[in-house]
Design brief:
By secondary structure, the protein is mostly beta strands. 0% of the residues lie in helices and 60% in strands. The protein has strands spanning 2-7, 10-13, 18-26, 31-39, 46-52, 57-59, 67-72, 77-82, 91-100, 104-108, 112-117.
Length: 118
C-alpha cells in the first residue's frame, strides 16, 4: 500500500509561484512513475507532468517552460515547481503513483487546490 499526501497549494496572483509536494509512505514495492494531474471544473483531467523511475520527464504543452517536476528519493517526495502561474492553471492538483507488483497498481493523493487570480 502506498499513501500519498499532497501539500503546497494555495491562492496566488497571476505571475506568482507555488511548489507542490507529494510525500509517499507505506509499503512500496517498485514505483515506476509519478505524475501530477490537474482537474478543473468543466475540463478533462490533464497530466501536467510526470517523472519515471528511469528519470524520464514529460510535461503537458500548457505548462512546458513554467513547471518543473523533480524528486527527492531520500524523502520519498516528488515536487512540482510552478512558476509564472496563470489563471488557467487553477485546478485541483493530484499526485499519482504507478507501481508494478505482478500487475499495475495506481495510487492517488487527496489533491491540493491551486487558485490563480488575475
Amino acid at each position: 500500500q502506498v499513501h500519498l499526501v499532497e501539500s503546497g497549494g494555495g491562492l496566488v496572483q497571476a505571475g506568482g509561484s507555488l511548489r507542490l509536494s507529494c510525500a509517499a509512505s507505506g509499503t512500496m514495492f517498485r514505483i515506476n512513475e509519478v505524475g501530477w494531474y490537474r482537474q478543473a471544473p468543466g475540463k478533462q483531467r490533464e497530466l501536467a507532468a510526470r517523472i519515471t523511475s528511469g528519470g524520464t520527464i514529460n510535461y503537458a504543452d500548457s505548462v512546458k517552460g513554467r513547471f518543473t517536476i523533480s524528486r527527492d528519493n531520500a524523502k520519498n517526495t516528488v515536487y512540482l515547481q510552478m512558476n509564472n502561474l496563470k489563471p488557467e492553471d487553477t485546478a485541483v492538483y493530484l499526485c499519482n503513483v504507478k507501481v508494478w507488483s505482478s500487475r499495475w497498481y495506481d495510487y492517488w493523493g487527496q489533491g491540493t487546490q491551486v487558485t490563480v487570480s488575475s
